[in-house]
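Deviations from the work plan: none for this task. Representative record:
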Amino acid sequence: MSTEYNFAYLDEQTKRMIRRALLKGVAIPGYQVPFASREMPMPYGWGTGGVQVTAACLKPDDTLKVIDQGADDTTNAVSIRKFFEKTAAVAVSEKTEESTVIQTRHRIPEQDLTEDQILVYQVPIPEPLRFLEPRETETRKMHALEEYGLMHVKLYEDIARHGRIATSYAYPVKVEGRYVMDPSPIPKFDNPKMEMAALQLFGAGREQRIYAVPPYTKVVSLDFEDHPFEKGGAPQACGLCDAHDAYLDEVIMDDAGTRMFVCSDTDYCRMRREAGHIGEMGVPLAEDAA
Amino acid sequence: MYVAVKGGEKAIDNAHAWLGEMRRGDTEVAELTVAQIRNQMALAVDRVMAEGSLFDPDLAALAIKQSRGDLIEAIFLIRAYRTTLPRFGASAPIKTENMACMRRISATFKDAPGGQVLGPTFDYTHRLLDFKLAAEGGVETAPKSEADTDEFKPHITSFLNQEGLIQQEPTSDARPSDLTREPMELPASRALRLQALARGDEGFLLGMGYSTQRGYGRNHAFVGELRIGDVAVELDIPELGFAIEIADIEVSECETVNQFAGSKTEPPQFTRGYGLVFGQSERKAISMALVDRALRWKELGEDNPGTPAQDEEFVLYHCDNIQATGFVEHIKLPHYVDFQAELELVRTLRKEATEANAAKEAAQ
C-alpha cells in the first residue's frame, strides 16, 4: 500500500463530508444531495463520483469488485481496482458473491446481491430531468414540488411517435413513491433489479451529487397503464454459457458480420460455465483456458 | 471463438510505458529541464498555475513536462495535487494597490499618478517569425529606467470614485465560500462567481467575453486599468496576533469601466468588471472582467435578453476545463451495454414500422 496518501486516498475530513451526504441520501431515497466533490487523480467522466463514494465506504477488511459494462476486465474497471489496491490495500475480487463493495458503471450484476453488500454506481448526469430542462435551478424546483409532468409528457410523446417508450437505458424510476431518479445509464433491463437487498449508492463527481436507494426500497420504472414498462433484452441465449436470463453484448465476429451474443456480466458467465453450462458457440471452460 | 477483451491491465501498463517513451522523444535531443520550462515557457506556467488554482511555478513546470505540453492535462495534474494539500489558513486579501508593477496601463486616462508602464508586452511587436531564435537565440538585455519604478500606483478607478462617478462595491468581511470545498449552489455570490472565473478556461472566457462585445449582452467596457506585478501575501498568525508576509506572488489584475445608464434606483454612473489571475495573463484577466460585468446584470437592474455571457448557470457550469474535458472525452470509454440497448430498440422500431407499412400496402 502506498503510504503517501491516506487510506483510500481521500483525507478523513473529506470522507466524513461524503458520508454525511450518503446518510442524507439514504434518509431521503432518490433525492440528489449536493456534496463538495474533490478533484480526483482520474478525469471527470471516468467515475470520480463512484470512486469518492467507494473511498468513503471502504474499510480495511472489505473486498472490492469493480465492473464496467458488467465486466471486471474492461480497462477502466482495471484502473479503478488498481487505484484502490494501491491506496487502500483492500482485497479485490471478480466474484460477485464474495465482494462487499461493488463499484459499477452501466450494469447491475446478474446475481442477486445481499444485505451485506453495497453497490456503488458511477453517474454521469444525475438529473433525470436534465434533457427536458437544462437548468439546475429549475429542475431542483421541479423535484421539490414533485412536478414530474414534463417527464410523463416526454414518455407520452415517445409513444405517440414510436408506438412505445423509446428510452432503452438510464430509464427513469420513481423511488419510494416520491423522487424521480436517474438509475445511471444502466440498460432498462436492469431496472427491476433495483429493488434489492443491498444498499445502492450513486456518486456523480463532476455534477457534485450523491443519492441513494436503501435496501428493499420501492423502485418503479415510469410507465403508463396501457403501456407498461418492459425490460427488453436480446431474444438469444449467451453463446458461451447458454444463459437466457442475462443481459447480452453483441460481438461482431468476422468481416461477414457474423454476430455472437455473450453475457455482459463476465463473472456470471464464468460461474455458469464452471457449473457446466455450454452455449451454442462455447466450449467447456477447461478447454478454453488451454 | 469469442475473444474477450482480456489483458486490460497489461495493456494499460504498456500504454503508459509507451507514453513515457514518447514524452522523452528523440534521445539525441537534450532533455528539457523543469527549470528551463519554468523560465522560458513562463506564460504556459502561468496559465497552468491560474487554471490549476495553485501558485507554484516549479510544480506547474513539472506538470507541463509530464503532460508533454498539453496544458489542460498539466492543469489537471496540478488540480489533482492541490486537492490533497492540507489547508492551514486563509491569507488576508492581497492589496493590489501596493503591487510592484512591471506593467500598468490605463485605456481611460492618458496619464495618471504612477504613470503608464508598458512592461514586457507583445502588444506592439510585429508578428514576424524571428529566425534568429531558431539559430542561436541570444541574450537580450533591456535598458533600466532611471525613474522610480517603486512609486505607489493607486488604482485608476479610485479617481473616479472621488467623484462618485463609479459604482461603489459593497464591502464585507464575511468569509467567502470556497468553491473547492462546498458544492456550488445557484444563485452564486459574486465572490463565488469570481472564484469560478479565476480558475475557468482561458479560451472559454475569451469566447464569452468576446460575445459581449459583439452584442450578446452588450456592455461597452473600457480597460480602466490593467496591472501585472508582484504582491505580498499575508497570513494572520494567531500566536503572534498580527499578519506576516509569507510570499510574493505575481498576478494580473484588470478593472473595466462600463457604462451604466442608471436604473429606477440608481443614478447614471460607471460600473465595473473585475478580473484577477495568477501570473502574467492579461488576456484572461480582461476576459474575466468582461464576463464578470455581464453576470452582474441582476444586481444592477439591467435587462437580460438571454445571452450566454449573462447566464450565470451557463457560464459557471461550463467554464471549468477539467470538468469539460473529462466529460467530453469520457464518451470514448466503453458504452457498449447502452449501445446494445439502443440497437435492440432501433431494431424493434424498424421491424414495427416495416410491418405496419407492409400491412398498409396489403390493404391498398
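Chain A touches chain B through 65 residues (CB under 8 Å).
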